[in-house]
Amino acid sequence: MIPAEFDYVAPATVDEAVRALAAGGEDAKVMAGGQSLIPVLRMRLAVPTVVVDLSGLTELTGVHDDGDSLRIGAMTTHYEVQRDPLVREHARLLRLATDTVADPQVRHRGTFGGSLAHADPAGDLLAPALALDAVMVCVGPSGTREVPAAEFFVDYFTTALAPDELLTHVKVPKLTGWGAHYEKFNRVAQAWSIVGVAAALRVSGGRIADARVGLTNMGPTPVRARGVEEALIGQPATAESITSAATRAAEGADPPSDGNADAEYRSHLARVLTERAVTAAVSA
Amino acid sequence: MTATVEPEVGKARRRKEDARLITGATRWTDNLQLTGMLHMALLRSPVAHARITSIDVTEAVKMPGVLVVLTGQDLAAEQGSLPCAWPITEDMLAPPAPSLAVDRVNFAGEAVALVVARSAAEAHDALSLIDVDYEDLPVVLDLESAIADDADLVHPDLGSNKSATWVFDSADAGTGSDVDQTIADAEVVVERTFRQQRLIPAFMEPRSVVVDPSPDSVTMWSATQVPHILRWMLAAVLGIPEQQIRVIAPDVGGGFGGKLQVTPEEVLTLLVARRLGKPVKWTESRTESMLSAHHGRDQLQRITISARRDGTVTGLKVDLLADMGAYLRLVSPGVPILGAFMFNAIYKFPAYRFTCTNVFTTKVPTDAYRGAGRPEATFAIERIMDELAAELGVDPLELRERNWIKHDEFPFTTVAGLTYDSGNYEAATARAKELFGYEALRAEQAERRANGDPVQLGIGISTYTEMCGLAPSRVLGALRYAAGGWEHAAIRMLPTGKVELITGTSPHGQGHVTAWSQIVADRLGVPFEDVEVLHGDTRVAHRGMDSYGSRSLAVGGVAVVLAADKVLAKARTVAAHLMEVAEDDVEFTAGTFSVRGTSTTMALGDVVVAAHVAHNLPDGVEPGLDAEATFDPENFSYPHGTHLCATEVDTQTGAVKIRSYVCVDDVGKVVNPLIVEGQVHGGLAQGIAQALYEEAVHDESGTLTTATLADYLVPSAVDLPHFTTDRTETPATSNPLGVKGVGEAGTIASTPAVVNSIVDAVRHMGVSEVEMPCTPMRVWKAIHRRGDGVPTTPGAGGGLGSLDSRSAEERGGAE
Question: What ipTM goes with this model?
Answer without folding.
Answer: 0.96
